[in-house]
Amino acid sequence: MRGIGTGEVNAEQFKRWVKQDYLFLVEYCRLLALGAARSPDLGTLRRFAELLQATAGSEMELHRSYAAEFGISGDELESEAMAPVTRAYADFLVRTAATGDFAELAAALLPCMWGFNEVGLRLAEGGRPEDPRLARWIDTYADPAFTSLANWCRELVDRLADGASAAGRARMREAFLLSSQYELAFWDV
């Protein structure tokens, strides 16, 4: 992570991470679609729909632009095999979204959004690296609009936890912690 901020990230490692994150985002979009479908109210449904649109549009476009800069074709990007950690994380999120309750879905979603925002904000404090690709990455995840989304997601999880039973909060906690572990492991793909 720090290598993105200092500009000292290994180009091949970053290239591999971009491809894996692109594949992850496809599955993340499925999670967001399930979140919209399972939302308890219209306002939450709209937010999930907005997240889906932002992810499928701008965030995936960032990855497609990186791929193009690295000489990776769209077909190559789409046909990349998922690394075991990528597959496990994506499967966990989609399974939780499909079979858990809505509060578990929200708790499982939070570490990715919150984590990327925190990393982006911390790296932005140190300035921008000379490599424009890395600077774009930092700018994307430190953007006030992305911070607003991360804040909304934290508030949603807090609100859902307030209304949950002790058993429901325990399931939310488990989903959050497991998702956090996958998120951390994903940085080493």
Give your account of this protein's structure.
The chain has a single domain (2-186), classed as Heme Oxygenase, Chain A. The chain contains 9 helices and no strands. The protein has helices at residues 2-6, 11-38, 42-69, 74-79, 84-99, 102-125, 132-142, 144-162, 166-186. The two termini are 12 Å apart.
Question: Strand tally, please?
Answer: 0
Domain module count? 1
Number of helices: 9
Q: What characterizes the major β-sheet?
A: none
State the separation between the terminal residues, measured CA to CA.
12 Å
What are the defining features of this structure?
9 helices; Heme Oxygenase, Chain A; 84% helix; mainly alpha; single chain; globular; 189 residues
Report a brief summary of the structure:
The chain contains nine helices and no strands. The chain has 189 residues and is mostly helical. It starts with a helix and ends with a helix.
What is this structure's SSE topology?
Blueprint: H1 2-6, H2 11-38, H3 42-69, H4 74-79, H5 84-99, H6 102-125, H7 132-142, H8 144-162, H9 166-186
